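Retro notes
What went well: the complex prediction finally ran end to end.
Inputs used:
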Amino acid sequence: MYRSHTNGELRIENINQKVTLSGWMQRSRDLGGMTFVDLRDRYGITQLVFNLDENTDLCMQARKLGREFVIQVEGIVVERSSKNKNIPTGEIEIKIEKLTVLNAAKTPPFIIEDETDGGEEIRAQYRYLDLRRNPVQEKLKLRNKVALETRKYLDFLDFLDVETPYLIKSTPEGARDFVVPSRMNQGEFYALPQSPQTFKQLLMVSGFDRYYQIVKCFRDEDLRADRQPEFTQIDCEMAFVEQEDILQTFEGLIKHLFQAVRGVNFDGAFPRMTYAKAMEKYGSDKPDIRFGMEFVDFTELTQNKGFKVFDDSEVVLAINAQDCSEYTRKQLDELIEWVKRPQIGAKGMIYLKCNSDGTFKSSVDKFYSTKELALWAEKANAKAGDLLFLLSGDLEKTRKQMGELRLHLGNELGLRNPNVFKPLWVLDFPLLEWDEENNRYHAMHHPFTSPKPEDFHLIYTEPGKVRANAYDLAMNGVELGGGSIRIHDRDLQAQMFDLLGFTKDEAQDQFGFLMNAFEYGAPPHGGLAFGLDRLVATMGGSDSIRDYIAFPKNNRGRDVMIDAPSLLSKEQLKELNMNTLS
Amino acid sequence: MYRSHTNGELRIENINQKVTLSGWMQRSRDLGGMTFVDLRDRYGITQLVFNLDENTDLCMQARKLGREFVIQVEGIVVERSSKNKNIPTGEIEIKIEKLTVLNAAKTPPFIIEDETDGGEEIRAQYRYLDLRRNPVQEKLKLRNKVALETRKYLDFLDFLDVETPYLIKSTPEGARDFVVPSRMNQGEFYALPQSPQTFKQLLMVSGFDRYYQIVKCFRDEDLRADRQPEFTQIDCEMAFVEQEDILQTFEGLIKHLFQAVRGVNFDGAFPRMTYAKAMEKYGSDKPDIRFGMEFVDFTELTQNKGFKVFDDSEVVLAINAQDCSEYTRKQLDELIEWVKRPQIGAKGMIYLKCNSDGTFKSSVDKFYSTKELALWAEKANAKAGDLLFLLSGDLEKTRKQMGELRLHLGNELGLRNPNVFKPLWVLDFPLLEWDEENNRYHAMHHPFTSPKPEDFHLIYTEPGKVRANAYDLAMNGVELGGGSIRIHDRDLQAQMFDLLGFTKDEAQDQFGFLMNAFEYGAPPHGGLAFGLDRLVATMGGSDSIRDYIAFPKNNRGRDVMIDAPSLLSKEQLKELNMNTLS
């Protein structure tokens, strides 16, 4: 037996008990004739005490312990003379009678404390050491709890956890698949699922009624900072439901999770907004509504006054940065440079200072009179002391730029408190999205999303205007998840594939099994998937999903700890009857 | 709203309520002026009634419904005149006022009832229809429950669910990996994990203390009837434990699962047996101990009496088939043919009938006197009416053959009741196994298993005799799971790789990250993994794991429903910079 208790367990009630503990040597201090050792495990820290006079050998042994040595000790629980109220075991310490080194440790390449001196790369390479740090362990404990509470909630509502296959069929629609060569069927490949979409729909056709799965999904995309080639979804589907049933069910899930895991209670129903409104007010389909700073349309107000930039623009948008009229020239220039960076792409930015003395100062004073500027302020609800920013140009691009600026200002002004959580349902997404590159429409959500019946008449005349029964749950500027009511009619599904440029043969070849299934009694159904990585990061108040993944990959898709991907042996390639082109 | 209640919900208490139901038309019967329809969903069946006189149109509409049509109805709950006590809703029926066809259905290719007329192939192709059948749904509900109860139990014991990566590094040791070409790192490959073994060990090095995961694993093996290229493990690991801690913990898990899911209680501790004893008594490392028929060693008793077959054999083994002395010549011949099949490989079989009149009849009467045959009977504890079977030859092969015969007889004699569950811990597995093909030892469990300290001195002289701290849980002749105490010392791990024929470079290249991790304070640790597919099949009383998988692959590794694997497009191959050799 390696231990009678964990290092987070002993209390004043245990005094005089003989105990055995095991763990890592976190740190030690020699104070006169005493050596104090902090013994650490996942559950906490317990202080060990060695007395030089009473047991010289043992104490000398303790003094030789290095950081991160794994040790086992036996001793008696005693009351501390100077108590530590910051830790649950702080009232006691263990007077040690026996010490065994279970495993020595080299000096770690960085300090294993809450605050570490290790850079990102070295911590990635020694991820198993970084994972010893409390803040990292806490993130994975949070993830564990979110996953388990999700299961409890969904199980309570009769959802069944059904595993869908990982070795499936490649479908070129959407993002790139990771593929897996088949040795038994040479020349053929499996694909790893981008989501269990078609399988969960088949489960609805099979009458499973309510399905969920916490499941790995795979996308071979060029990685961005917050993307991983493998990611985890809370994947759900329900039969005999309308959109409202789904929103209610999963609003309930999110409320349950925040309550059970973070102790946060949401009052009332989550607010809802159409996609159109979200784009208009925030330039984003996942607006952060922890703060206002909504877009105000200045087009009419500002055009035809001789300022060519505005006159030539499809739209002029403004936002109001409250209480920022004291921004210096330098601050303003930095913001203008910020929106002009290629990632944002604005050509320039106009500002209007509503000074606290009631005067105005703008970068376009020569085109607009004070009276006109006052109208700007009025329209943007700006009071003395506020600062307006104006961007102009093409509607879509300007909204996107303004959306980025808004979030940037939100960060700068401390308006995005990570401990405040503001959910928002975004509804009525467009069914289709124009793909400039390939000069065709593609499905905004996926090809199985049902169009809104009332918009269906536009499907061949103005397909871009057709709205879908699709919805996202946004929170704090992050898309936590999304879903849709699915098509369950064979003919409509075939029509969708046609609209997306599939030939009949392509549609049948890739999705024939699903369309066939729809002919044998498919119920109305719909669902939703949450990104678990994103959800736990948001719940943890962090922007980075990587911290919430035990063994993440870097932005080249590499696991630098195990050094994967890597070369295969010639024998392996030969068995697969495969070659890599050189 | 598609329904106010499910089809398993309404009772006599609901009489006179107006309800809306949705589901599948299971069957209908016209009785005089009435039409009765069974409406089915996952939750049950509710009887709908249409009255031809009262509402002719509606009733005629109902009579046109085909099997598996998806419909929605509104009506009033009424008490049945003739009640059906076999179903929970059998006291009521719904007098229908409105009927809507939500989706029509073609006639299914096989009957969707508990007993179906569909063969295995057609059901695999239309798996989504086979999944509608009650017995199939029940199996997946059992699986759902086992998984959830596993999580609850392990969570209660402070195990943390930590997700490990699916895109890892290929290691040629052990079974074949499925590999995934990397587009971003051309010429390099990920591998899909055969198990999260090294990652869970790293989590122990990281101080996670108790880890579990219900996780897909992948092996590219030539498939046998009960193997799938992807399978699911309940994967667990614990730090600061000895073998006994692990056995206690997971014996507790199995007890909990059987109690919670099947209502089966096991009395006392699970029996235990060494690997050596299991091989000696049952010729199997996963003996079915629902019945006796243990091997009796007849070598000494039968040799040197002039029967050359026995004299030339390393071993002569016997088993006693009780009460079988009346077996006919035909039955005996069939059994002899059975053991001579190539899958079993015996050269022949000797029997001894212990007739009920006290006489003996054997197939080797001319070599053995009645007195000698009486000694056989005595040694095998055979009474009048019993039947002995003897096999002989090489020790290992004879044990294996006899083990197969024993299970075959167990089946034939009805000794393997699927509703009786007999767990058995098999302990002290050998560390190494001789690999005839490659003329070297390989790890019986895996290269991370620790040898028993007391056997360690044999490691270079008689490596085959070194036992490991490895254990399996067998039940009813099935290996439910297994595990081991791991090596946590860098030098010992390096020594193991050396013993297994790895060069230093190979070991460092493939498992350097793990050996490095052991240098930074690795705790003693060990673990276990259960095969979830196997576990639920056993709990369900079935031999076939395929029935317990929602979308299984066939024995060519194909998913015939979606037709995977399949060819890739030229564009996909090109992007991966890959070619398949022709």
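What we learned: Residues 137-272+424-548 of chain B form a domain with the BirA Bifunctional Protein; domain 2 fold (CATH 3.30.930.10).
What to try next: split runs per interface for comparison.
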